[in-house]
Amino acid sequence: MSRPRAFDETDALRTALLAFWEWGYEGTTMAVLTETTGLNKTSLYRTFGNKEKLFERAVQMYHRDFLAFRTEALAEPSPRRITERLLTGMASLHNAPGTPSGCLETTAALSAGPENAAIRAMMSSNRDAIIPLLTARFGEFDATELPRGMSAAQTAAFVATVIMGMSVQARGGHTRDEMADVVRSTLLLWGD
């Protein structure tokens, strides 16, 4: 009969998620993971496979637990409201108490070197997935509801770029108030 686990797998995964968010994929070494989770290497490997599989599960948890607001944002009744809800949600996420600043996917993608090109590609793909979703959603509206002179695709690319820029700024120490200024400035595209 096998001995029951003496730890909560979900808690360990969440702790690993926060470590990856703080230090990126490469910076989160096995030493960091064992220290932060309190598990030894054998327990980590037995439970999660390897570091890459643990990271993939952490990213799934990140999407489920921290990015769910995007679904509600995309359901808003106008492109301006969609943008406002997305950016406000991101500003809150990037500066939330109890979590690292910035975005897990942006941090991981920007800090991954050539030996982790697959991780960088996965994070870039995950991060960029919002663009076709926004393009499709913005395309459901009349052109008069988009910023003047911008197509649905241009508006989506712009909003996604602002989201990514906000993550980098938050990582660099910008405050929630400064993020709120970015949100207000972006919304000026729709006029006063």
UniProtKB/TrEMBL annotation:
Pfam families from the UniProt entry: TetR_N
InterPro entries linked to this entry: Homeodomain-like_sf (IPR009057), HTH_TetR (IPR001647), Tet_transcr_reg_TetR-rel_C_sf (IPR036271)
PROSITE patterns: HTH_TETR_2
Binding region for DNA: 29-48
Alphabetized UniProt keyword annotations: DNA-binding, Transcription, Transcription regulation
Domain HTH tetR-type: 6-66
Record bears the keyword Transcription regulation: yes
Descriptive protein name: TetR/AcrR family transcriptional regulator
Organism: Herbiconiux daphne
